[in-house]
Amino acid sequence: MATSRIVVYGGRGALGAACVNHFKQANCWVASIDLNPNENADVNITVPKDASWLQQEEHVVKELGTALQGQKVNAVICVAGGWAGGNAAKELSKQADLMWRQSVWSSTIAASLAATYLTPGGLLALTGAKAALEGTPGMIGYGMAKAAVHQLTKSLGSKDSGLPENSLAVAIMPVTLDTEMNRKWMPKADFGTWTPLTFVAQLFDKWMKGEERPASGSLVALVTKDNVTELIVQ
């Protein structure tokens, strides 16, 4: 019998797959939501890529409801997203649109899932970016989208947000995650300053269990130095 039920939005990405694996090993029931299925998850909900924002939300909310059969979930974790560079002189609207779809659409749909299916006291975790606390001239679309996720998180952590009672809405703000793709594109970087995916998955697990929780609405920067990660709560 599964101990908890977890939804991972972006369950096929590097961090999402690490979260799916972590919670499966902890004997949890895990649903993955992504453009493609994750074979390790108990349930897969594939997002129709070319559908509108509203159509994607309706599809995902309906499919998860069918899978849950009246049950509630203990955590909704949204680690969907991506990265694109570019300033105002280089395809700004095109890159901003892509970033909005990947980060903001997924985060708001995750919030709708939490409002509908999260148990009281449950966890809704979104993914922002520490860089988006300031100007991001070399990646404007990315910074805009992540700043919107930060604003969404603060709103969800406030009174009358529509989330279940005593739930925790929080956004992690990584600097650089230690993924295969990042190592491929930045092979000469100092990996000791990169945050391990297992650390993030374990952090979500602790928060889900009510351990060492920040205040709801918090933005939590993950700052790694010499292979040690510090949490800086905004």
Automatic annotation (TrEMBL):
Keywords: NADP, Oxidoreductase, Tetrahydrobiopterin biosynthesis. It catalyses: 5,6,7,8-tetrahydropteridine + NAD(+) = 6,7-dihydropteridine + NADH + H(+); 5,6,7,8-tetrahydropteridine + NADP(+) = 6,7-dihydropteridine + NADPH + H(+). One of its GO terms (biological process) is L-phenylalanine catabolic process. One of its GO terms (molecular function) is 6,7-dihydropteridine reductase activity. Pfam families: adh_short. The keyword Chaperone does not apply. Gene3D superfamilies: NAD(P)-binding Rossmann-like Domain (3.40.50.720). Its EC number is 1.5.1.34. One of its GO terms (cellular component) is cytoplasm. It is an enzyme of class 1 (oxidoreductase). InterPro entries: NAD(P)-bd_dom_sf (IPR036291), SDR_fam (IPR002347). The keyword Oxidoreductase applies. It comes from the Eukaryota. Belongs to the short-chain dehydrogenases/reductases (SDR) family. Homodimer. Catalyzes the conversion of quinonoid dihydrobiopterin into tetrahydrobiopterin. This is Dihydropteridine reductase. It comes from Papilio polytes.
